[in-house]
Amino acid sequence: MKLGAETGGMQRLVLGLSGALFTVVVLLQLTAGAQDKPNTPISLPIDTVTLPDGYRDWKLISVAHEAGKNNDIRAILGNEIAVKAFRDGKRPFPEGTVIARLAWQYQSSPRNDAVFSAPQSFVAGPPTNVQLSVKDSKHFAASGGWGYGQFEGGRPNRDPALLQTCFACHAKLESRADFVFTHYSP
Fold first, then answer.
1. What is the pLDDT of residues 147-167, one digit of tens each?
2. How far is CA 138 from CA 80, 141, 143, in A?
């Protein structure tokens, strides 16, 4: 009896040490990858996408108006990798592609409409959120190679239910789109 209890304790110890060793190895690999690409956030599971510095200065890819419940106006921006891929029609998108979608409330402009003979001017109102799509096939293999993030007031929304809906919606697109809704607007 005593031998069985000691063996069970030894197995738990070995499993615990194996788990700790695995964690250390993963962290060392992630740290090494971050050193290769300074100022690049480490991409981990779906809820760790971060807002890149300077994303508001990226080039415009397209604009959109989302009616219905959202009723917003959007600017879709991309890092250099994304813009080049959109312009060249390259699919699937290359690793390192980052697409930012900035949204504001879609509202009429009484000030602008006063100049015209009828209400016709609509503008961006208060911001609603920023959404990011980050192409990293290694870290986001389970979601088609894309990681997603949503930010409100500059803060990440880490609600797992919200973040899980991102890929579920993008996955409905045809495969040649590489899970991206936006088309380049020259």
1. 999 999 999 998 888 888 898
2. 20, 6, 10
